[in-house]
User: What shape does this take?
Amino acid sequence: FMAQMGISGEHKRNNLWGVIKDDPVVQGNVRGTVTYAKAGANSRTTQIFMNFGNNKRLDKQGFAAFAKIRDGSLQVLDSIYSGYGESLPR
Assistant: This one.
C-alpha cells in the first residue's frame, strides 16, 4: 500500500510546523509517487507517504501527490521493510 514517515515522537515538535492547505489532485497516487498524509480537508502537516502501488482511490479523497520517485530509485522503495503492516512496531 504505502510507507508513511515524517512525524516526530515529540508531539510539541509536530505543532511547530502548522498546517498546510490542500493542493488540487493533478497526478494520481500511483507507484512511486509521494503524497502528504492528512486527516481531513486542509490538515496536512509534516507527514508524507510513498505509494508502493496503484492507490488511485486516494485521489477522490483529496490526497494530492507532489513528487515522483525516479525509476532508477524504485528498488529503494521496494526494499523498505513491510513486516510492520498497518500498525506501529511494538
Q: What stands out?
A: The radius of gyration is 14 Å.
